[in-house]
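Exercise 7.
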Amino acid sequence: MPTLVRPKRGRILAGVCAAIANRLGWSPTLIRVLWVVLSFIPGPLWVAYVVLWLMIPAEEDVRPL
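Solution. The predicted structure, written as tokens, is:
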């Protein structure tokens, strides 16, 4: 199973939805649509997004010397 990292490519905001989709093997579009639908329900979804943004590491560039 892939690790949970925010990809360099395919981000829209911070890459949290893309990271979750890659980890689960789902479509990033599906995760984004679910997030938008769930954001209309009162709750701390935006706070959770920011926390995940801070906690999930970004994908590193590996460049040869």
